[in-house]
Amino acid sequence: MAGSTGTGNGAGGSGNTGNTGVSGATGNAGSTGAGGSGYVQQPCTPGVPATTQMRRIQNWQYDAVVRDLLGVTTVGTPAKAPSALLYADFDGPMVPDAWRIYNDVGSQIAKAVMANATQKAKFITCDPAAAGTAGQTCLTNTIKTFGRLAFRRPLTDAEVTRFMAITMGTTPAPTGAESAEAILYAFLVSPSFLTIPELSTATPSGSNFQLSSYEVAARLSFMLWGSIPDAALNTEADNNRLSTKEQILAQANRMIMVRDKTTPLVQFFHRQWVQMNNGNAHWWNGDHDSTKYPIYNTTTSKTSYAQELDNFFAEVVFTNGGYKDLFLSPVAFINKDNAGIYGMTNTGTTMTKVNLDPVQRPGFMTRAGFLASYSHYDMTAPILRGAFITIFMIGVDPGPPLAGATMIPVPPGTYATQRERTDALVNQSSSCMGCHTNVINPPGYVMENYDPVGAWQTTDKSFNPAGTINPVATVNFGDGNKKEIHNSQELMTELAGIQKGRDMYSQNWVSFAYGRNPNPNDQCVANDIATKLGTGGPILNVLADLTQADSFRMRVRAP
Question: How many alpha carbons fall within 13 Å on the CB side of residue 150?
Fold first, then answer.
C-alpha cells in the first residue's frame, strides 16, 4: 500500500500487543486484550474468573527472585542476567528445551553461589561437613529455612525428607559442599520454585476457595515487586493475617512505597503498554544517519533513550501523577546522549532530572525514545508515528490493507517536507487514501516538528531545500470525534482525555497484574480503575486497588 514510508499497520503488526496469553504471574496483556486491534470492551460480570493454579514465573521475575533470594544478578562468562539465558516466555505446558535450560541455568547458579562467600551465606550459614549428626542437622535446617523463602511457604515433612535424600545413597558419598550444592540446585529446578502454586482448599467460600495467607503473600509480592515476599510479608503469612481485604491492603500500601522494588514493576508495565516488548513494533529496531544527525550515537543512544523512558514513567507514577500526566508531563531525564536533542548540555552518563518546555515537550511521545524509534534512517515517519497513536493510544483500528492493495513506490518529484512526500505516496491510490488520509497520517503530521532523532525542527532538515513544517491536521479521535489539531500539546491534551484510551490502559493494568487475558469478571475491576483515572486519580492508587478485588484473594473451585 504505502511503500517505503511504511504501512498503516506499521505501529506493530496488525495492532496486536504481543502474545495471546499470559504465561507467568504477571505479564503480557495478550493480543486479545487491551490495546490496538485486539482491544475488546468486555461486559462486566461480577465474579471470580477461572485461572491456572500453577502460574510459571516469567523471565524478568526469575531475575528478581534469584537476586533477592541469593544475591545473584549475573551468571556465566561473559556475565549475563540469568533471564538472558532462559527460554523465551511462553504459554502452555513446559516444553523440553525450556526445561533443559532451566536445569542448565539452575546448575550454573548453584555452582556460582557455593563459590561466593556472600551469596553462599544467603543459602547456608552452617557447616554441612561437620562431624557426627551436626552436618545432617545443618542440611536439614538449611532445607527448612531456605525452602520457606524459595517456595514462599513452609516445606512439608515429606518434602524435607525428599531433599535430604539427595545427599544419601551414592558412592562415593558426597562431601558436605557437594551435598549443599545439589540441594540448592534441586530447589532452583523445583516446580514449587518455578511456578506460583495456588492449591489451597482449606476455606471454601461458595463456589470459590479462599487462598491461603501464603498464596496471598506470593500474589502480592509477585504483583507489586515481581519477586518473593520480604520478611514483613512472610511474618503476616506465617501468622495467617492475609485473609481479609483490610489486611491485604495494609501490606499492599506498605509494599508500594518500597520504591526500589516497585519501580521495576511500574517500568515493565509501561513498556508493555507502549509496545516496547512487542517484537512486531518499531521500538529500537533501526539506527539513524549519524552523518546527517551527528547528535545520534549508534552505540549508546538507544540505551539512554530507553533508560529515560523508564525513568519518565516511574517519575510520573511515584509523584502521584495520573493518566493525563503520561501525555502531558514535561519531566525528562538527560545525559550526554540525549541532552542535545532537547537543546540542553550534559556531559555525563548519569541521568539527570529536568523539566522541558510543556508546550514543545508534553509526555512520553515527545521524548527521544519514541520519536527516534518511530522514524526512518534519515527522515521522519509520520505513518509510523500516526499508526502508533491511532491504534494504541486512541483505539481506532484501521485494519489490514484492503484486498488487492500493493506496496507502491513514492512517485518521482521534488519534495521539501516529509508530509509532501507522504501525501504524494498515499494519494496515488484510493485504497490507501481511505485509511491513511483520514485516520493514520494526521496524528503523525502533527508530530512532524520532531526530526528523525527527536530534535525540534521548524523546517524539514531531511530535504534540500528544507520546507517549512506544517503540523496542522484534522485528527480522528474515534466515535465520530474529529478535531483540527495545531501542535503536539493540543494532540496530547486530547489523547489524555479519551475514554477509550483510559479503558485500554486500565484493562492492560488488570491483565498485567493478574496474569491473564481480559475476561468479563476482570472487566469490572478495569472499569472501576478507568473511572478513578478519569477523575484524576493517581496511577499509584491502581496498584492498591488491584489487591481489593475478590478475585485477588480467591480462586474458582474445580468443577
Answer: 24
For residue 28, which of 396, 275, 390, 281 has the smallest C-alpha distance?
Answer: 275
For residue 459, the SS3 value is strand
Backbone angles phi, psi at 382, to 5 degrees: -60, -30
So what's the pLDDT on residue 187? 98
**Whole-angstrom distance, CA of residue 159 vs CA of residue 143:** 9
Render pLDDT for 384-399 as a digit per residue (tens, 0 to 9). Answer: 999 999 999 999 988 7
Cα separation, 170 vs 178, whole angstroms: 12
Check residue 312 and give its pLDDT.
98
Strand-pair partners of 482: 476
Residue % of the chain over a pLDDT of 70:
91
Residues 6+ apart with CB under 8 A from 109: 66, 70, 72, 75, 82, 184, 188
Spell 46-56 as b/e; 16+ CB within 10 A means b: ebbbebbbebb
**What cell numbers appear for 142 in the block?**
538449611
Instruction: Please name which of 507, 536, 393, 378 lies closest in space to residue 32, comparing C-alpha atoms.
Output: 507
Distance CA(448)–CA(265), nearest Å, equals 33
Tally of CA atoms within 13 A in the half-sphere of 89 that contains its CB: 27
How far is residue 242's CA from residue 359's CA, in Å, rounded to a whole number? 47
Q: Residue type for 493, please?
A: T
Q: List CB contacts of 320: < 8 A, sequence separation 6 or more.
A: 538, 540
> What is the residue-wise DSSP string for 482-517?
EEEE-SHHHHHHHHHT-HHHHHHHHHHHHHHHHTS-
Distance, in Å, from the CA atom of 485 to the CA atom of 210, rounded to the nearest integer, reads 52
Distance CA 53, CA 162 (A): 23
Longest dimension (CA), the chain: 90
- Find, among 240, 282, 367, 265, the residue nearest to 10 by Cα: 282
Region of residue 381 (left: phi > 0; alpha: psi -120 to 50; beta: else):
beta
Cis peptide before 78 (omega within 30 of 0): yes
Q: What is the pLDDT of residue 169?
A: 74
Helices (H) and strands (E) in the chain, counts: 23, 9
Measured at the alpha carbon of residue 507, what is the angle toward residues 35 and 548, in degrees to the nearest 5? 165
H helical segments located in 301-348: 301-318, 323-328
Cβ pair 248, 547 in contact under 8 A: yes
Check if the beta carbon of residue 167 is closer than 8 Å to that of residue 174.
Answer: yes
Question: Which residue reads 520532531 in cell numbers?
Answer: 450
Q: Give the residue ranges of the chain where pLDDT is below 50.
A: 1-37
The predicted pLDDT at position 541 comes to 97
